[in-house]
Amino acid sequence: MHKTPIADTLRCIIAFTLFAAACACVANTWGAEPPADPKALQILDTLPVLSKPTMPFLMRTELEVAEKNAQNWKLAEAHDTEYRASADGKIDVITRYYKYVGLSKNPAYSNRSLWNGNQFLRRQQSLTPRATENQVWAGASIRTDRINHSTTNIFNGAFLRGILLGDDRPVTDVLRHATSLRLKNTTETVGSANCLVLEAVAPEGAYTLWIDPAAGHSIRKALIRKKSGDICDGKPIPAPPSEPGKKASIGVDVLLDDVQLQPLDGHFLPVAATLYQTIHFSDGSQEVFRFAAKSQYEINPDFKKLGAFVMDGIPEGTLVDHDDFPGLHYVWHNGAPVLDPETDAIKRIDQAIDNSRVTPAKPAPASPPTTTASSADLPLPAPDPDPSPASAAFPTWQLLTAVLAILALIAILLLAYRRSFAQPNQQH
Description:
Blueprint: H1 6-31, H2 38-46, E1 57-69, E2 72-85, E3 91-101, E4 104-115, E5 120-126, E6 136-141, H3 148-152, H4 171-176, E7 180-183, E8 188-190, E9 193-202, E10 205-212, E11 218-227, E12 231-232, E13 235-236, E14 249-264, E15 267-281, E16 286-299, H5 303-306, E17 319-322, E18 330-333, E19 336-339, H6 345-357, H7 396-427
Parallel strand pairs: 6-17
Antiparallel strand pairs: 1-2, 1-16, 2-3, 3-4, 4-5, 5-6, 7-9, 8-9, 9-10, 10-11, 11-14, 12-13, 14-15, 15-16, 17-18, 18-19
Helix pairs in contact: 1-7
């Protein structure tokens, strides 16, 4: 009489299932990123960030840039900035730039960038003695990312608003996308403040923040180390060059220190800080820059009285470089960029359409981070992609788990298939 070995089959199924589950657990532990410390996330949510204001404010900043030569600091340039921010996202930044010649502080140019809620406008004018009113450059765009340059620019004191050098967004946003984030079990003293310490590793580098709970969880100190492969100014830092004798930057250290806070209307606002940038090169050398800033604040200012979010200083008829329509001829008219009616508009529109059909050239390879102590204004950065883990490729551990489960199922089916043929032979 034929007897089906149900017990043997069940034992095989259970064995293969347990094996697949064990392999999945090992793969999960091996491939998954360490979870963020819940306490660290809670602290991160309490950090005040002026780059995302909940109240309208005005911030006046004086910043000096110096380069270290041997053991001495040499003044290079200075920036006086008035930063206006509304609670609904409008930004207006006015900066005067000075160049040091010895100890003499000489005006170089002025710059104004604003986002009025619908359009980005910018003007730049020379302040040298030989400059005239007509020496004004004007630009326009309807892309919201263009104002990002003004909000993240180190020269207008962005590090006082929570955006550190080399990053294009607030440090709180950087750490929310960190691959690891933890709160140290012990506190550390910075000056006279007893601080919590956050440590994180993100695509932008390794971060350590010293947080002062007694001052509204403000940042008292920060240290960032960026090496080859880490994101700096929107692109990865290159690997050391393979060519012998070739010098290239391969890393950047950023230290925010000497932060002074002042209470104002229930907020603790940074009124002074010093930021140090150390650029490391492949030959072992380094360059060090110092950014010393001090600020004054006004909460709920009268923006209408200040003329905020309305561009001025551009003479009527000035040519405007429009980022969105580079083939067209725009001029400044009645406080706005308009298509020049004196030009052959139809011809220019056709030319712009033809240019847009041309296949864009391949982007140039990523260049190493440059020194920030430059007399030229920084270029406008492209929109940053979302580095959220949700946008990453399918995780390795999940793929391995799926493969193991499929193999276990195939093994069970093969075993059942062999037994189905073995039973008739046993009857004979």
